[in-house]
Amino acid sequence: MTLNAPFSYQNGMLHAEAVNLEHLADQVGTPCFVYSKQRLQDNWWAFDRALQPIPHLICYAVKANSNIAVLSILAQLGSGFDIVSGGELTRVLTAGAPANKIVFSGVGKSIAEMKQALEANILCFNVESEAELTRLNQVAGEMGLKARISLRVNPDVDARTHPYISTGLKQNKFGIAITEAPSLYAKAQQLPHLEITGVDCHIGSQLLDLAPFADALQRILQLVKQLEQQKIQLHHIDFGGGLGVRYREEEPPEIVDYANVLLEQWQNLPYTLLLEPGRAIAADAGILLTRVEFLKNGEAKNFAIVDAAMNDLIRPALYGAWQRIEPVFVADTPSADPLCYDIVGPVCETGDFLGKDRYLRVNEGDLLAVHQAGAYGFAMSSNYNTRGRAAEILVSGHQWQCVRRRETVEDLLALESIATI
Ligand SMILES: Cc1ncc(COP(=O)(O)O)c(C=O)c1O
Ligand SMILES: N[C@@H](CCCC[NH3+])C(=O)O
């Protein structure tokens, strides 16, 4: 028997982390998410290196994986952060990141969130509507402060990704139409409690093509020229995140090729380039470990019923996403042919599956690893069916540490009370 390295990737590279996953799963219990410190760092450095020729700030998209230990690893590298809520702001500051590297995206910022971010003195609000602009100006004024802003511009390019995670089209709720941006910038310039500092854009997630990026940047740079003519002073251009990763047979661009497409158009612009990558930094730095509870041979299908469910990893149920699932132990000389299974969880939904039609050699009690689970895994988990959320483990070399313990039922019930009315 050989133990698979915890992070053996599709490209055949074995990762340096060397923790025995069986021992870890025995001690922590399953399901649990396991993150590689080294891989997080390597991914962040790959962006940083690729953008070396120009002034830049990588603002990791916290929504992808907001564990405080993950954030603090990136903060120590000098990362900036893209947040979308007051909660994420608190996490990032708790992780020790400086507020002046934080940008705040999202279409529905509340007054309380605006106040929190103004008090913290974040780098920039990415404003997504005229109404938000008005509200932010008022809130900042009441606090006797000025809010630094970018307008998030919707360039109307088709990112050619899943419709739920495409954000740069006219019909999406995000951003301000590029055609309306010059007049809204002119308005922002008149508002006394705002300070224009940049332009922002994000066209979608899990992008596998460079063309939409190139297209969007071209449109943004045209807008920037127009704003220069309007004498609007910019300091940065925030080009969002969205670079895809390989889940199955996709061929996402390398980080360096993605950066080169941006650099080609950038030339010698006198601005700082901000990027907001999430998935490309966190996805392949994490796996979800789950144990087979039962094997069930139905009339039409075989099921491997595992102890992780859609509440732990919702991407398969929500987007029909495919993530690689494989046993942690692989026999050197397999004794039987693999069987075709649906890998399903205990949640009472037919949509509760982690994978369908997977050929596996498994037995009850076996440990499985779901790959590419470092991004939009735990961060999108829930307590559906009153299931406590999984533990999160960070591994570094031969060491591991529990960076979020498993939720107990007491944790879940603590917020509720028996009705007395
Ligand atoms: C505004 C914004 N920035 C950054 C991201 C991160 O995207 P990704 O994880 O695809 O890099 C997202 C998510 O799509 C987003 O909405
Ligand atoms: N949650 C999505 C990505 C959403 C990106 C956020 N704007 C996913 O798992 O693919």
UniProtKB/TrEMBL annotation:
<dbReference type="InterPro" id="IPR022643">
    <property type="entry name" value="De-COase2_C"/>
</dbReference>
<feature type="active site" description="Proton donor">
    <location>
        <position position="348"/>
    </location>
</feature>
<feature type="modified residue" description="N6-(pyridoxal phosphate)lysine">
    <location>
        <position position="63"/>
    </location>
</feature>
<keyword id="KW-0663">Pyridoxal phosphate</keyword>
<feature type="binding site">
    <location>
        <begin position="276"/>
        <end position="279"/>
    </location>
    <ligand>
        <name>pyridoxal 5'-phosphate</name>
    </ligand>
</feature>
<protein>
    <recommendedName>
        <fullName>Diaminopimelate decarboxylase</fullName>
        <ecNumber>4.1.1.20</ecNumber>
    </recommendedName>
</protein>
<feature type="binding site">
    <location>
        <position position="349"/>
    </location>
    <ligand>
        <name>substrate</name>
    </ligand>
</feature>
<feature type="binding site">
    <location>
        <position position="279"/>
    </location>
    <ligand>
        <name>substrate</name>
    </ligand>
</feature>
<dbReference type="GO" id="GO:0030170">
    <property type="term" value="F:pyridoxal phosphate binding"/>
</dbReference>
<comment type="similarity">
    <text>Belongs to the Orn/Lys/Arg decarboxylase class-II family. LysA subfamily.</text>
</comment>
<feature type="binding site">
    <location>
        <position position="376"/>
    </location>
    <ligand>
        <name>substrate</name>
    </ligand>
</feature>
<dbReference type="InterPro" id="IPR022644">
    <property type="entry name" value="De-COase2_N"/>
</dbReference>
<dbReference type="Pfam" id="PF02784">
    <property type="entry name" value="Orn_Arg_deC_N"/>
</dbReference>
<feature type="domain" description="Orn/DAP/Arg decarboxylase 2 N-terminal">
    <location>
        <begin position="41"/>
        <end position="283"/>
    </location>
</feature>
<dbReference type="InterPro" id="IPR029066">
    <property type="entry name" value="PLP-binding_barrel"/>
</dbReference>
<keyword id="KW-0028">Amino-acid biosynthesis</keyword>
<comment type="pathway">
    <text>Amino-acid biosynthesis; L-lysine biosynthesis via DAP pathway; L-lysine from DL-2,6-diaminopimelate: step 1/1.</text>
</comment>
<feature type="binding site">
    <location>
        <position position="376"/>
    </location>
    <ligand>
        <name>pyridoxal 5'-phosphate</name>
    </ligand>
</feature>
<dbReference type="GO" id="GO:0009089">
    <property type="term" value="P:lysine biosynthetic process via diaminopimelate"/>
</dbReference>
<dbReference type="InterPro" id="IPR022653">
    <property type="entry name" value="De-COase2_pyr-phos_BS"/>
</dbReference>
<dbReference type="InterPro" id="IPR009006">
    <property type="entry name" value="Ala_racemase/Decarboxylase_C"/>
</dbReference>
<dbReference type="GO" id="GO:0008836">
    <property type="term" value="F:diaminopimelate decarboxylase activity"/>
</dbReference>
<feature type="domain" description="Orn/DAP/Arg decarboxylase 2 C-terminal">
    <location>
        <begin position="33"/>
        <end position="374"/>
    </location>
</feature>
<dbReference type="Pfam" id="PF00278">
    <property type="entry name" value="Orn_DAP_Arg_deC"/>
</dbReference>
<dbReference type="InterPro" id="IPR000183">
    <property type="entry name" value="Orn/DAP/Arg_de-COase"/>
</dbReference>
<keyword id="KW-0457">Lysine biosynthesis</keyword>
<dbReference type="InterPro" id="IPR002986">
    <property type="entry name" value="DAP_deCOOHase_LysA"/>
</dbReference>
<comment type="function">
    <text>Specifically catalyzes the decarboxylation of meso-diaminopimelate (meso-DAP) to L-lysine.</text>
</comment>
<comment type="subunit">
    <text>Homodimer.</text>
</comment>
<feature type="binding site">
    <location>
        <position position="319"/>
    </location>
    <ligand>
        <name>substrate</name>
    </ligand>
</feature>
<feature type="binding site">
    <location>
        <position position="242"/>
    </location>
    <ligand>
        <name>pyridoxal 5'-phosphate</name>
    </ligand>
</feature>
<feature type="binding site">
    <location>
        <position position="315"/>
    </location>
    <ligand>
        <name>substrate</name>
    </ligand>
</feature>
<keyword id="KW-0210">Decarboxylase</keyword>
<keyword id="KW-0456">Lyase</keyword>
